[in-house]
């Protein structure tokens, strides 16, 4: 299994690809895809990077695992392929956007349009076995995505990091909040959202206000 990733990320992460843990990770992933049904499809494992080159990142949203149902995952956190029903967390994200900035809930849950505007939709773990949530955790992906966050924090300025839920907040410990805007809230999953930890965070308007204040185009959420 050859790692094919967008050129600017390939340069940024060249050292990471040579580390023993990453080579072991790729062996594991190749074996899993050979023997089991895994998601997202192999060509989409690095979709977040392919849609959002390093120098074009404006906003980072951190997820945990890809969706593990048939046809759902497309390599972008919280996103599903066109024609697939929106999962509960994504419905709550769209409801908050509607409440925050008045954009109607879109028909599709495919977030490629966000990614193409500079929103890096990064899962901590980039692959999963079908119907087995968390099955590819603690195999090396977390170390790799920590390196991604560190590179962005160190080598870029004025980014917006949206950290939703305890897992994302811990993952965000590597972010320099003196250089970047870090917004945190509860997770958009129904369990958290229905307890009052998600709705009303206004992260989407806050992110856009920050981008515009810093001379960047806002995101069309």
UniProtKB/TrEMBL annotation:
Domain of life: Bacteria
Molecular functions (GO terms): uracil DNA N-glycosylase activity
Ranges that cross the membrane: none
Catalytic activity: Hydrolyzes single-stranded DNA or mismatched double-stranded DNA and polynucleotides, releasing free uracil
GO biological process: base-excision repair, AP site formation via deaminated base removal
EC class: hydrolase
Any GO CC annotation of this UniProt entry: cytoplasm
Active site: 65
Database matches in Pfam families: UDG
PROSITE patterns: U_DNA_GLYCOSYLASE (PS00130)
Keywords, alphabetical: Cytoplasm, DNA damage, DNA repair, Hydrolase
Residues covered by the Uracil-DNA glycosylase-like domain: 50-211
CDD domains the UniProt entry points to: UDG-F1-like
Main location: cytoplasm
Location(s) in or outside the cell: Cytoplasm
EC number(s) per entry: 3.2.2.27
Entry similarity comment: Belongs to the uracil-DNA glycosylase (UDG) superfamily. UNG family.
Function (record text): Excises uracil residues from the DNA which can arise as a result of misincorporation of dUMP residues by DNA polymerase or due to deamination of cytosine.
Protein name: Uracil-DNA glycosylase
Lineage: Bacteria, Pseudomonadati, Bacteroidota, Flavobacteriia, Flavobacteriales
């Amino acid at each position: 299994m050859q790692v094919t990733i967008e050129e600017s990320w390939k340069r940024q992460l060249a050292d990471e690809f040579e580390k023993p843990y990453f080579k072991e990770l790729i062996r594991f992933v190749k074996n899993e895809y050979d023997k089991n049904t895994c998601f997202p499809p192999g060509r989409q494992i690095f979709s977040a990077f392919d849609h959002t080159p390093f120098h074009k990142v404006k906003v980072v949203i951190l997820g945990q695992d890809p969706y593990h149902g048939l046809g759902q995952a497309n390599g972008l956190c919280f996103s599903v392929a066109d024609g697939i029903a929106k999962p509960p967390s994504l419905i709550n994200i769209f409801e908050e956007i509607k409440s925050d900035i008045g954009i109607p809930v879109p028909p599709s849950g495919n977030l490629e349009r966000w990614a193409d505007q500079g929103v890096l939709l990064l899962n901590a773990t980039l692959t999963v076995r079908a119907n087995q949530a968390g099955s590819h955790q603690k195999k090396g992906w977390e170390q790799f995505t920590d390196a991604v966050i560190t590179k962005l924090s160190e080598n870029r300025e004025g980014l917006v990091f949206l950290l939703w839920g305890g897992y994302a907040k811990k993952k965000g410990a590597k972010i320099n909040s003196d250089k970047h805007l870090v917004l945190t809230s509860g997770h958009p999953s129904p369990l958290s959202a229905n307890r009052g930890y998600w709705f009303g965070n206004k992260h989407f308007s806050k992110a856009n206000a920050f981008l515009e204040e810093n001379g960047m185009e806002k995101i069309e959420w």
